Amino acid sequence: MRYGFLALLSLAVPATAGDLSLSSPIDCDLDGPCYIQQYVDHDPSDKASDFTCSGLSYDGHKGTDFALPTYDMIETGVDVLAAAAGTVAGLRDGMKDEKFSDANAAEVEGRECGNGVVLRHADGWETQYCHLRQGSISVTKGQKLEAGDVLGQVGMSGRAEFPHLHLSVRHEGKVIDPFDPDGTITCGEVETDTLWQEKPTYQAGGIVSIGTSADIPEFSEIRANTVPPVTDDSPALVLYAFLFGTQKGDIISLSLNGPDGAVAQRDTKFKKAQAQSFRAIGKKLKTDRWPAGEYSGEAILKRGDVVIDSQKLTLTLP
User: Fold this and answer.
1) What CATH number does domain 17-176 carry, 1.10.110.30, 2.70.70.10, 2.30.300.10, 3.40.190.10?
2) CATH: 2.60.40.10, 1.10.10.10, 3.40.50.1110, 3.40.50.970. Which one for 206-317?
3) Interior/surface letters 82-112, b for 16+ CB within 10 angstroms, e for the rest
């Protein structure tokens, strides 16, 4: 995949953590609501592997994707920050924020990065920031910046299927994974030599959010944060979980309880890996209203015997 105004090249051989020091490129907590959806692909075949030998990547992916959980956060505005001091070497703005599809593929071709900024740093280093919000870029070519300076805001321009910032790091034109700059992977071992000042927590898949709905929602409603709310006479009472990075064999356990006891419960095993997905349980209304009181929902994501994420919520009906 080409990223338009600067090409992304093959994964590099070794760099060391002392060569460049990166701070977070996004002004959003990566332990929630934001999260890292995908990492640099280290597998030279047509398969994909992140730096932990897990599947949070896709074939040929040459950056780290910092994701927003819902589309409406684009309008709210989440700042993209310079990850290190440098000079603006290139930029582009003016592309629409819209989900990539076959319908706009021709328009995006050759400009897959969307609206973006490239910073040039000392000693042959570059960072590239892609998929920024249309009209948000606040820097100019040749401008000198410090780490933490605002470049623009997270959007969904270019080849993007969800709102996120794609950060690429390069040294002498070669792609570097900031989580594994020497390019040497040892499965099962924690990588300590990184380019990060404070390394973001690695989460091998998880629960983006859980919520309740008056009916089984469309995935587009969950992503847009427009799920219909539950009222005392809703036609159904539904608990859903928005998930990322699930693998074949993972199990999502959903349970919903009310003032009169269990409403619904189900364990679902994933038949294939999915970058983003949702699962839901619920019950149809069979009387004139739902019992008044407190309802509690819980989602637990397990990989084998290990719980990799869980979330709870409460809902009170009058």
Assistant:
1) 2.70.70.10
2) 2.60.40.10
3) bbbbbebbbbbbebebbebeeeeeeebeebb
- Domain segments of the chain: what residues? 17-176, 206-317
CB 7 within 8 A of CB 90: no
**pTM of the predicted model over 0.85:** yes
- Write out the two tokens for 86: 């440098």
Q: What is the pLDDT along the chain (318 residues), one digit of tens a residue?
A: 334 444 333 444 455 545 799 999 999 999 999 999 999 999 999 999 999 999 899 999 999 999 999 999 999 999 999 999 999 999 999 999 999 999 999 999 999 999 999 999 999 999 999 999 999 999 999 999 999 999 999 999 999 999 999 999 999 999 999 999 998 887 877 778 899 999 999 998 999 999 999 999 999 999 999 999 999 999 999 999 999 999 999 999 999 999 999 999 999 999 999 999 999 999 999 999 999 999 999 999 999 999 999 999 999 999
Q: Which amino acid is at 91?
A: L
Closest CA to 166 of 128, 223, 123: 128
